[in-house]
Amino acid sequence: MAPNPLQLYRVHTDALSIAEVARTVTVSFSHDPLIHWLRPGAPLWARNDARTQAWQYRRIQRALLDGIVFRSASTAQLKYVFRSGGETPKQASVTTGCGPDEATDAGVVALLFPSKRTVIGRLKTVFLSLKLWVLDIIRPVVDGGTNMERVEQMMNSHKLMMDRIKSIHHLDNVWYLEVLAVHPSLQSRGLGGKAMNWLLDYINHEPLVLECTSEKNIGFYEALGFRVVEEVNLADNEGAVKCWIMLRDARRKE
């Protein structure tokens, strides 16, 4: 098997890195069906919208409390390393395939959550937890246009889904991948598969769950060893969206 040159790095509390991660999540999921359902009638997430970016920044900070945030090098750097078609190194170094401001955005982002946390892991997040608690009081941020009843339905569905998977498949410890984002300027370069393989190695191929929100992406995950174990319909009187819950259980594969 060819080596995987893609490297992901753990994000801690560096403000610049969090901002670069937040921007990539924004542009990567602006057209996601689940996001559209959660924000009915609202404008698409935009990278240059200050309110959206403030909310995404706080979202990444919260992910650091309970999970692990990973990022790759910038979009410009990855475009140089992972060239597409007949592109030459010289062309890749000059043309990033995105706006000049986007060249510094994180090329690949992942938000990964363990089923269990160590005592040390909990202690490390005490300060950040207190900081966010204060910020939510003195400087709250919201994602404009979000339907909070739909968000609550999604969160309740997620909790029930995780409990069912653990019970039905007899899993005591299962990881959850909330986000795997490849910047739009880097699409069709195989980075999604490389990032997923990197993450699978990181968790030692332990059981991993994700929610696929686009049917066209199911085959991509199946090629990596996942299978659909549940289909979830989120709906109210004004609209609906479907998610495919996928599990990669290393024990079953063996």
Automatic annotation (TrEMBL):
PROSITE patterns, per database record: GNAT
N-acetyltransferase domain mapped to chain residues: 167-248
Record GO terms (molecular function): acyltransferase activity, transferring groups other than amino-acyl groups
Gene3D superfamilies per UniProt: 3.40.630.30
Xref: PANTHER family: GNAT FAMILY ACETYLTRANSFERASE, N-ACETYLTRANSFERASE DOMAIN-CONTAINING PROTEIN
Name of this protein: N-acetyltransferase domain-containing protein
